Amino acid sequence: MTTRPLGAQISHMLKNRGVDTIFGIPGVHNQEMYRGIEEAGITHVLARHEQGAGFMADGYARATGKVGVAYVISGPGLCNIMTPMGQAYSDSVPMLVISSVLDETGAKRGQLHQMKDQEGAAATVCDWSATARTADASYQLIDRALTELSTGVPSPKHIQVPIAQLEASAPPAPDRADAWPLRPGAAPAQRNVLVDRINASRRPLFIFGGGATQGVDRWMPHFQRLNAASFTTYAGRGIIPDDSPLHFGATLARAGSAAVIASADLVVAVGTRLSEVDLWRDHLGHMAPLVRIDLDPECLSDRHNAETRILADAGAHLTESLNQMEGVKDTTWTAQDVAATRAKWRAEIDVERPGILPVADALKAAAPADTMFFSDMTQFAYAAKEVYPMDRPCHWHHPFGFGTLGYALPAAIGGKIGVGDQPVIAILGDYGFQYTVQELAVAVELGLTLPIIIWDNGKLGEIEDGMVRAQIAPNAVNQRNPDFLKLAEAYGAAAVQPADLDGFATAIKTALQTKGPTIIRVTSDIALTGG
Questions:
Q1: Which three-class secondary structure state does DSSP give residue 271?
Q2: Which end of the chain is more exposed for a tag (fewer CB within 10 A), N or C?
Q3: Mapped to the 3 state alphabet, what secondary structure does 424-493 carry?
Q4: What pTM value is reported for the model?
Q5: What is the rounded CA–CA span in Å between residue 297 and residue 127?
Q6: First-to-last C-alpha distance (Å) of the chain
Q7: How would you classify the pairing of strands 229-232 and 169-170?
């Protein structure tokens, strides 16, 4: 039983619970949390801004399925990481933020990093925020957070520890239990309800979200025998391989998808909130009974009014239910109709966002099959996440719900740290890149092989288009950009601006073989320059 300052014990506890990487920035108020990091055998990644640390933890969590952990200081450190916490909250990402907090604020004003209500501020952008005023409370809250992140709906948690407690001697945390509890499967009666619904249908349609990405290999063989049509949300891309003959892709936002959904005689939504950013309309479009399978009770009682509501882990329930199905089901969906519909929607996207799809096609041809992508709020990503073919889940990550700029670069750094030699590519717009450009130094410092595609149209193109559609004279949408190639070189990164699509493909392949990050500046007219 080694007694240490509580700040050091927390790192040892996290290591005992399986945490191997922490993102953050040390400061005078949280330096005790850094006392035990190296001794515990944990890798610390020094971000250049707490916002970057939070996005790195998010990217690491999405890439690995593990909890992304960040250490920050009180006051501004916590405020800076609140945007990543909000992003993780909206997208159900497992993140744990641990911060210091002042010992007393009510009776003492003018302190360094003072806030009126730090716990309350953090609570607005995460599942819960709590103050641990003793060593035992710290250990219990950490175990609570890790247990919930492993068994329930993944959602960020915040724990803050007073500075005096971090400095005080404390016994070690108890050893972890043998294993985290398993996520719940559905009750047998609910398994039978789903099977009965499917057996009675002639035109079943499934919608898969990010909550259905686990255990696909266990239930997919059974699903294929259903001959059901399918959509995915953006977060669910790759659950159904893009070339599956009855798969409509991640195209729920297409206006015509409502009519397709209305033609089904059964709709089963699995692991998805069916939120605004999935549909961009108020109503899903279904006329038939709707079945919802989700770990989140809130989803089961939302505006979509499902007739059948199943509270369960999506993968476990599909495995338990679909393996009861026998034989191959005959349905009225046809591959020809699905292909024609998808071709029509692709043409719509090409008209809406001219010049992007040829670049996305060139990227697909150049990138290895197991490439993991992290994209930002940029027009290139808006088009690509509808059409870029995915054959495996959890390989395209985007700030869907909160929708913050500046996500992709630090998230890709965290993801690359998590997956090691697996190829990772970041996709950003020229404006969003400048939100977190300083984190390029981290990629250089760590020698991360990371192509960083900057889609440079010299403006906030999506906002300009929205103003025009609303009959507003475009205002404050044009900016003067730096020389991105020289900026990259100043940081110590490689840089290239391909002249055409062939050069773009070559740049991607070269960057994936280069030690250290590579900025690839792509102008919006590259598809018109031949190649």
A1: coil
A2: N
A3: EEEEEEHHHHCCCHHHHHHHHHHCCCEEEEEEECCECHHHHHHHHHCCCCCCCCECCCCCHHHHHHHHCC
A4: 0.96
A5: 14
A6: 67
A7: unpaired
User: What number of other Cβ atoms are within 10 A of residue 353's Cβ?
Assistant: 21
Work out the burial of residue 400: count CB atoms within 10 Å of its CB; fewer than 13 is exposed, 13-18 middle, 19 or more buried.
buried
Among 28, 33, 91, which Cα is nearest to 57's?
A: 91
SS3 337: helix
As a three-state string, the secondary structure of 61-93 is HHHHCCCEEEEECCCHHHHHHHHHHHHHHHHCC
- State the Cα–Cα distance between residues 158 and 123, nearest whole angstrom: 8
Q: CA dihedral defined by 146, 66, 157, 136, rounded to 10 degrees?
A: 30
Q: What is the pLDDT of residue 184?
A: 74
DSSP-derived letter for residue 404 is -
Q: Minimal CA–CA distance to 381: which of 413, 365, 402, 405?
A: 405
Residue 292's H or E segment, with its range, is strand 290-294
405: Cβ–Cβ under 8 A, 6 or more apart, which residues? Answer: 376, 377, 429, 431, 432, 435
Closest by CA to 26, choosing from 170, 166, 144, is 166
Per-residue pLDDT of the chain (531 residues; tens, 9 = 90+): 689 999 999 999 999 999 999 999 999 999 999 999 999 999 999 999 999 999 999 999 999 999 999 999 999 999 999 999 999 999 999 999 999 999 998 889 999 999 999 999 999 999 999 999 999 999 999 999 999 999 889 999 999 999 999 999 999 999 887 777 777 776 777 878 899 999 999 999 999 999 999 889 999 999 999 999 999 999 999 999 999 999 999 999 999 999 999 999 999 999 999 999 999 999 999 999 999 999 999 999 999 999 999 999 888 889 888 988 889 999 999 999 999 999 999 999 999 999 999 999 999 999 999 999 999 999 999 999 999 999 999 999 999 999 999 999 999 999 999 999 999 999 999 999 999 999 999 999 999 999 999 999 888 888 988 999 999 999 999 888 999 999 999 999 999 999 999 999 999 999 999 999 999 999 988 977 654
Under 8 Å between Cβ of 222 and 323? yes
Q: What is the CA radius of gyration of the chain?
A: 24
Domains defined for the chain, CATH in brackets: 4-170 (3.40.50.970), 188-340 (3.40.50.1220), 353-528 (3.40.50.970)
Note whether 229 and 235 are within 8 A (CB).
no
Q: What is the dihedral of CA 167, 172, 173, 177, to 10 degrees?
A: 160
Task: Please enumerate in sequence order all residues whose Cβ is within 8 A of that of 25, keeping only pairs 6 or more positions apart, or say none.
Answer: 46, 47, 49, 50, 53, 71, 72, 73, 77
Helix (H) or strand (E) segment spanning residue 414: helix 408-419
Residue 423 has what DSSP assignment? -
Look up residue 275 and give its two tokens: 């939120």
Q: Is 500 helix (H, G, I), strand (E, B) or coil?
A: coil
8 Å CB contact between 115 and 54? no
Contact (CB, 8 A) for 186 and 321 = yes
